[in-house]
């Protein structure tokens, strides 16, 4: 009885343990479903989660049924064997005296044992990868590429969608056959033992031989299928001078695989015939031929062809296959339809030409994102718990003028809260969101070398035609933890002098905590009982989680790749994030792989995320991408046609930098479309380097507003120059368009090879060699300041090239970089001045009216400008006293405005004193 109680107690403990595991795992799954459902993506969740579950179940059932059926064939010989083996050892183990093993192990019980064993083996050895659901769904929803491979003439969709599925079927089949052979082999070996007290002899019965033979035939047919699939895998061969099937692969390996395919098929057929003829001589010959052929065509013959046919005449033998690699690589990376033209450099810039390209001149970027981020943090974070994570570049129509701007969201960084303030209430209920943005034009600075702001402060103040009625950021790049919004205690909104403004969330983001059951589930998920105890959580409160936009998009669409730089957009008074998404695969035949990306990439999906509600729209902007169309079939509730994208969002789409970097690095080699030139690497290009903050770095693509050759208006493009391999002069530049219907067009401009065009590093060297510039920079460095030379911009204007590099100065004890000089280079001249317009004047001798003044003139303090020193001094004292009062109250925004006004007054006072 005690033993029975222990067994019962153990069972109860196991049940409780299993129940707890189920509850905790179930809370994660259920809350994820609630999250997907809130976004309107419940079908996507069900498809991803249950497809994998059903596939695991289906594969396990197939394994179980197949193994059980085969085990049933062994039932009769095993029972016959048991009836013979009635020794004392077996009887003592199964029933004791007077009971034989046969009395216990009858047919019914053996069926139960077989079924249990089949279930264990079936589900234990039928494990599948996490990505199987994607392989299966892509196969059944595949879309054609309408491009065929050059060897077998099959559509690329066969390689991307069908071939991985066939490989999976074959691998599962091989595992199943081998597992079954082992299981029945053990049983037949045991059942075939005919024993006496002194000896044991084994002899397989005809039934066992036939059964094992059929399984071996199935194994051989799967092996033959494997050879057939390996023929297509040759198109991913790394053997030759380029990626893809080489001369040796086609003329040796492919031949060997075809021969092995037929040999194995013939052996399988011979085995089936042998079931009736009982002759093994032909079978042994077949197996010998198979092994010999595998050795010859797997190692000897391909090595012979490579060494004695290919290597002595490599370019002649590989030319055709190099051509295939070039063609397929350009198609896979979207570089097959770019526009190539010659950029005739005439170096004939005049004031008239500059005036015609005023949009370009007025949008030359003087602010680099790295020092500007430090400046934003020092001037506009305003409170220690705010953070500017990144600085984005975009363009807006500012007062009727097309302007390039830089902007950043002021996000809540709870890690910056004081240690005693990092309580669950503060981090979950109080400090829930960031507030506002800063925006500044790319080329305007104040007299102190600081950015001029279009939008600044808290609450946001704007002096342009951009409204920001809802500046709250609940979803961003720094929102890494969950929060509970719309609670009784109210959420901190923004600082307001010596007090704070509070807010209650009214958006649709997150999941409502409208029941006690949901509170329990979330308490289990996050391991915090405060969900149940906190009085501030009401039935209208909403829990917001997966708030980091990078994590958010990957949670919904783990099958996509995403750009590293989501950017913020102001539209109709609200804030939105735009996240570029990529479809990729490593199954594009002959295409050169790039890192861990694969060998095919398209930016066919744009994700728009509401910074307040967290809602996401996945727009398919390139319906010609078969991968995007396939995903759209699989997840109809997730993807939306790009035609439904709001026009306001379309105006802010930009060509993504990550994709452009990949394409430019591929094109640096694959612009050589002649196989002979490609083989010899006669015209290899490089991405140029530049000096940044004293370090040589690879030049990154940069956004710029320019008027492209043969274009009638300025547009927002992403561009990058190229230099020849091992040389520093510039040989070409690539541009990707971002505006309107021309979005996505790629243009490559080649410079004439008979003319020297300075590259970025040559300009950097000329700056270093200029005595006046070098002397000043050295002097600054010796006075306890850090000189930061920003990005060097290569700017095509009309038929000339202009180079611009900003120079920042930062004190060693300060985190506030200031723009102090601008270097401009043109032809053989290099000048450095305090302002960009001054530098242009020095080079071209043009009037200052031609170029928009970069120094921001501050507004007057009073309507009637004082004309006496006494009036100015009195006004300065009034403003100073008011500023001190704002400082004591903690009203930092007002304090900043007053100090700016005080500086204006003092400057005017200085001017008046000098007269």
Written account of the structure:
Helix 1 crosses helix 2, helix 2 crosses helix 6 and helix 9 runs antiparallel to helix 10. The protein is an alpha+beta fold and 915 residues long. Strands 3, 23, 26, 27, 28 and 29 form a six-stranded mixed sheet that branches. Strands 17, 18, 19, 20, 21 and 22 form a six-stranded mixed sheet that branches. Helix content is 46%, strand content 19%.
List keywords for this structure.
915 residues; 28 helices; alpha+beta; six-stranded mixed sheet; 19% strand
Q: What's the gist of this structure?
A:
This protein is of the alpha+beta class. It has 28 helices and 34 strands.
The residue-averaged pLDDT reads 87
Return the structural class. alpha+beta
Shape assignment: flat
Count of beta strands: 34
**Quaternary organization:** single chain
Q: Which spans of ≥5 residues are poorly predicted at pLDDT below 50?
A: 87-99, 194-200, 848-867
Number of helices: 28
Strand residues, percent: 15-25%
Distance between the termini: 113 Å
Q: Major sheet, described briefly?
A: 6 strands, mixed
The residue fraction in helices comes out at 40-55%
- What Rg, in angstroms, do the CA atoms define? 37 Å
List the helices and strands and how they pair.
Layout: H1 2-39, H2 42-72, H3 75-84, H4 88-93, H5 101-104, H6 107-124, H7 132-140, H8 156-191, E1 193-195, E2 200-202, H9 206-233, H10 247-277, H11 281-310, H12 314-332, E3 339-342, H13 351-356, H14 358-361, H15 369-380, E4 386-388, E5 392-398, E6 401-412, H16 424-430, E7 434-435, E8 437-441, E9 455-456, E10 461-462, E11 472-473, E12 483-485, E13 491-496, E14 499-503, E15 511-512, H17 516-526, H18 530-533, E16 542-544, H19 549-556, E17 561-562, E18 567-571, E19 574-585, E20 600-610, E21 616-620, H20 626-634, E22 639-641, H21 647-650, H22 657-670, H23 675-680, E23 685-686, E24 689-692, E25 695-698, E26 702-706, E27 715-724, E28 732-737, E29 746-750, H24 760-769, H25 771-782, E30 785-789, E31 793-797, E32 800-811, E33 818-826, E34 829-833, H26 836-844, H27 869-889, H28 892-914
Parallel strand pairs: 3-29, 21-22
Antiparallel strand pairs: 1-2, 4-6, 5-6, 6-8, 7-11, 9-10, 12-16, 13-14, 15-16, 17-19, 18-19, 19-20, 20-21, 23-27, 24-25, 26-27, 27-28, 28-29, 30-32, 31-32, 32-33, 33-34
Helix pairs in contact: 1-2, 1-17, 2-6, 2-8, 3-8, 7-8, 8-9, 9-10, 10-11, 27-28
């Amino acid at each position: 009885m005690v033993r029975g109680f222990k067994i019962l107690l153990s069972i109860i403990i196991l049940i409780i343990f299993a129940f707890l595991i189920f509850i905790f795992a179930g809370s994660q799954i259920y809350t994820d479903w609630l999250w997907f459902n809130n976004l309107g993506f419940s079908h996507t969740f069900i498809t991803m989660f249950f497809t994998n579950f059903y596939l695991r179940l289906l594969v396990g059932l197939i394994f179980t049924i197949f193994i059980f059926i085969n085990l049933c064939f062994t039932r009769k010989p095993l029972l016959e064997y048991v009836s013979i083996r009635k020794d004392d050892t077996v009887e003592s183990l199964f029933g004791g005296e007077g009971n034989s093993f046969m009395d216990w192990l009858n047919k019914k019980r053996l069926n139960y044992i077989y079924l249990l064993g089949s279930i264990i083996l079936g589900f234990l050895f039928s494990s599948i990868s996490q990505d199987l659901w994607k392989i299966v769904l892509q196969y059944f929803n595949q879309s054609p590429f309408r491009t065929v491979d050059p060897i077998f003439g099959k559509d690329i969709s066969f390689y991307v969608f069908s071939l991985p599925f066939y490989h999976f079927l074959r691998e599962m089949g091989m595992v199943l056959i081998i597992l079954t052979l082992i299981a029945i082999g053990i049983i037949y070996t045991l059942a075939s033992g005919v024993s006496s007290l002194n000896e044991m002899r084994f002899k397989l019965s005809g039934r066992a031989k036939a059964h094992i033979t059929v399984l071996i035939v199935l194994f051989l047919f799967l092996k033959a299928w494997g050879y057939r699939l390996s023929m297509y895998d040759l198109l991913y061969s790394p053997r030759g001078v380029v990626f893809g099937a080489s001369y040796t692969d086609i003329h040796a390996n492919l031949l060997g695989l075809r021969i092995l395919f037929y040999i194995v098929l013939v052996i399988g057929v011979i085995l089936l015939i042998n079931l009736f003829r009982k002759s093994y001589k032909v079978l042994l010959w077949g197996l010998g031929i198979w092994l010999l052929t595998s050795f010859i065509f797997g190692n000897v013959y391909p090595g012979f062809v490579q060494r004695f046919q290919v290597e002595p005449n490599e370019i002649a033998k590989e030319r055709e296959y190099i051509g295939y690699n070039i063609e397929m690589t350009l198609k896979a990376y979207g570089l097959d339809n770019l526009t190539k033209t010659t950029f005739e450099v005439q170096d004939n810039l005049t004031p008239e030409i500059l005036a015609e390209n005023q949009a370009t001149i007025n949008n030359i970027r003087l602010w680099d994102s790295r020092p500007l981020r430090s400046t934003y943090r020092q001037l506009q974070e305003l409170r220690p718990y705010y953070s500017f994570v990144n600085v984005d570049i975009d363009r807006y129509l500012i007062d009727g003028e097309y302007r390039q701007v830089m902007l950043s969201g002021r996000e809540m960084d709870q890690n910056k809260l004081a240690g005693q303030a990092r309580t669950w209430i503060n981090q979950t209920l109080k400090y829930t969101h960031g507030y506002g943005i800063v925006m500044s034009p790319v080329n305007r600075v104040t007299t102190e070398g600081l950015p001029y702001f279009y939008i600044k402060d808290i609450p946001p103040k704007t002096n342009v035609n951009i409204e920001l009625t809802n500046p709250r950021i609940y979803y961003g790049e720094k929102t890494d933890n969950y929060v509970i919004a719309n609670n009784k205690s109210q959420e901190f909104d923004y600082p307001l002098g010596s007090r704070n403004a509070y807010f209650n969330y009214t958006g649709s983001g997150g999941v409502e905590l409208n029941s006690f059951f949901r509170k329990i589930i979330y308490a289990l998920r996050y391991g915090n009982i405060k969900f149940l105890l906190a009085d501030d959580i009401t039935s209208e409160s909403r829990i917001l989680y997966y708030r980091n936009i990078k994590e958010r998009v990957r949670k919904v669409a783990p099958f996509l790749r995403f750009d590293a730089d989501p950017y913020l957009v102001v539209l109709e008074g609200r804030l939105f994030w735009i996240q570029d998404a990529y479809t990729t695969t490593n199954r594009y035949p002959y295409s050169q792989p790039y890192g861990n990306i694969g060998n095919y990439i398209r930016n066919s999906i744009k994700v728009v995320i509401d910074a307040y509600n967290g809602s996401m729209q996945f727009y398919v902007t390139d319906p010609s991408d078969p991968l995007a169309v396939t995903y759209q079939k699989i997840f109809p509730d997730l993807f939306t046609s790009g035609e439904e994208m709001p026009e306001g969002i379309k105006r802010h789409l930009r060509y993504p930098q990550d994709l452009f970097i990949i394409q430019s690095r591929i094109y640096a080699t694959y612009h050589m479309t002649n196989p002979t030139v490609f083989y010899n690497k006669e015209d290899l290009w490089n991405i140029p380097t530049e000096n940044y903050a004293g370090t040589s770095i690879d030049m990154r693509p940069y956004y710029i507003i320019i008027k492209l050759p043969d274009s009638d208006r300025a547009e927002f493009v992403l561009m990058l120059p190229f230099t020849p391999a091992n040389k520093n002069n510039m040989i070409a530049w690539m541009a990707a368009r971002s505006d309107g219907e021309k979005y996505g067009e790629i243009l490559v401009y080649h410079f004439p090879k008979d003319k020297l065009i300075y590259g970025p590093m040559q300009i950097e060297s000329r700056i270093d060699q200029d005595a006046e510039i070098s002397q000043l920079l050295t002097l600054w460095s010796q006075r306890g300041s850090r000189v930061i030379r920003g990005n060097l911009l290569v700017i095509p204007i009309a038929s000339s090239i202009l180079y611009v590099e900003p120079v920042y100065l930062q004190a060693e004890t300060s985190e506030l970089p200031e723009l102090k000089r601008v270097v401009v280079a043109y032809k053989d001249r290099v000048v450095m001045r305090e302002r960009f317009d001054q530098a242009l004047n020095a080079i071209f001798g043009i009037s200052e009216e031609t170029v928009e003044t970069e120094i921001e003139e501050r507004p007057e303090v009073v309507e009637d400008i004082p004309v006496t020193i006494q009036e100015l001094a009195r006004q300065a004292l009034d403003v100073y006293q008011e500023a001190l009062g704002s400082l004591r109250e903690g009203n930092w925004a007002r304090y900043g405005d007053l100090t700016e006004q005080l500086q204006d007054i003092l400057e005017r006072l200085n001017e008046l004193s000098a007269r």
